[in-house]
Amino acid sequence: MRANRVGTKGASRDESLSAGSVCWVDVSSADPVGSREFYSGLFGWIYQIHSGQRRQEYLTALCGGRPVAGLSGTPVQTGQPAAWTLYLESVNVTRTAQVLGRLGGQVLSGPTDVPGQGRVLFGVDPTGAVVGFWQPARPSMLRRTVPGSLYWAELDTWNGLRADEFFANLFGYQQRQIGDGIEVDYTTWSRDGKTMLGRLEMNESWADPDCAAHWMLHFAVEPQIGTDAAARRVLALGGRVDIDPYDTELGRIARVADPSGATFALIDPADRVDAATDLAAGSARVDDPYDD
After folding, report:
1. pTM summary value
2. Burial grade of 96 (CB within 10 A; 0-12, 13-18, 19 or more)
């Protein structure tokens, strides 16, 4: 394993400690009612309807009384399939938009003001993955790591080095290669000693060549239920299982999709294996991102 900073030319010296951290996630759907029922049945989510909005426009999912995700009635970009979107915190999304273009990315929309909430920007990194940037008006309340909430976020891309360089320059991340860099090219991204994200370079041994770069969001399941039973529940609720449960050092993982086709991963962090010698398809061979 080795750590390195592959670039910092775009990173601001006055970035806050939270800049570049995950501050929100949401999912779009062609069937908002069906999506609500699916995630409620899978994770036990309940929903908060925001005053002044149409009932099916945007909901906040709660787990244990705290926000864990948003549900949108339509995809972010017209004509795009239903998908999960990751939002990274930005001190200034106007500046982020400028740097995004300078570093080879592309602005899709924004920056846009969200009254009382902050400002949002949607972009594409140079390897083709859509990502959101959020300048919050107040500290993020996103609940993390507990069952029913986001545990880990990973960029799956065909050009790992380009992604490493881009995000290091954007947020000053330090990359740590924790695979062999050839058969398994997996880096973790950190700032100030805190591991924030992961990056996996896809290969044709397990990924369809037509699969575009994307963020894979991993949601924790109850250890008493486990990943295998949770994957079966996905099927019973009308979703699909894309990759059957497999073991990693991070936990037991399955890649699934909701009834609208938005893909994500299930993970049981309590069901881990020791250092893997034969990694399964799409393996997340990473150190515990929250073992600080």
Report:
1. 0.86
2. buried
